[in-house]
Amino acid sequence: MFFVGFKSFDERYSSANIRTQNARAVLLGAYANLSKVQEGIVLPVNPPSIPWLGTTGGMEMWIQNKGDGGSAQLAAIVREFIAKAKQRPELSGVTSTFNAASQQLQVDVDRTKSETLGVPVQDVYSVMQTMFGSLYVRSSTRIAACGK
Predict the structure, then answer these.
(1) Residue 22: left (phi > 0), alpha (psi -120 to 50), or beta?
(2) Alpha helix ranges (H) inside 35-93
(3) Over the stretch 61-105, which tens digit does the pLDDT of each residue have?
(4) Are 47 and 3 in contact (CB under 8 A)?
(5) How far is C-alpha 79 from the chain's CA centre?
(6) Does the model's pTM come out above 0.90?
(7) C-beta of residue 145 within 8 angstroms of C-beta of residue 93
(8) How far are the Cα atoms of 56, 87, 95 from residue 83, in angstroms, in the given order?
(9) CA-CA distances (angstroms) from residue 147 to 80, 89, 98, 108, 119?
(10) 3-state SS track over 94-130
(11) For the purposes of burial, counting CB atoms within 10 Å of the CB of 84, is it exposed (0-12), middle (13-18) or buried (19 or more)?
C-alpha cells in the first residue's frame, strides 16, 4: 500500500483543466492504466477523509435535551433545525439519526441485590452492553452534514 500526494491546488489548476487534475479523474486514470498489470491486482482507491478536514468529510452536531421536554418535543426541534440547515447553501446531505418513535428502555440496576446474589455489578453492565451494544440510547440526537 502506498499513498500518492497531489501537487498544490494552485499548481494543479493553474495550467491544467480541473476535470483532468481532480482526485476522481486521477483515480480513474490510474485504474485504467493499472488494470493492465497481469502480475497482480492493483486497486487505486481514494482514502477516507480525515474527520473535520476538507470540504467533503462532513461534520457532526449533537442536539441534547437537558430539560423536561420529551421525545416528541426533541423531534420537533430536530426537524426545525434540519429544515433551517438545508436552506444553507454551504451544507448538503443534512440528516439526523434521531427517531422519536424508537422504543425506549430505562434500566436501574439494584447494586445491593446484585452483590447479594453473588453477581458482580460489572458483569451486569457487561451483559447489558453485549445485549444492547449495537443500540445507542440517549436523550440527544446526531446531526450530520457535508459542506460544499
Answers:
(1) beta
(2) 71-86
(3) 788 888 887 888 888 998 999 999 989 887 877 888 777 877 767
(4) yes
(5) 19
(6) no
(7) yes
(8) 21, 7, 10
(9) 19, 9, 21, 41, 50
(10) EEECCCCCCCCCCCCCCHHHHHHCCCCHHHHHHHHHH
(11) exposed
pLDDT digits (tens, 9 = 90+) for 2-38: 777 777 777 777 666 677 777 788 888 888 888 888 8
CA distance 77 to 74: 5
Length of the chain: 148
Closest CA to 28 of 16, 43, 14, 11: 43
**Grid cell 476538507 in the structure block, residue:** 54
Any residues with CB less than 8 A from the CB of 126 and at least 6 apart, and which?
none
Q: Identity (one letter) of the amino acid at 57? A: G
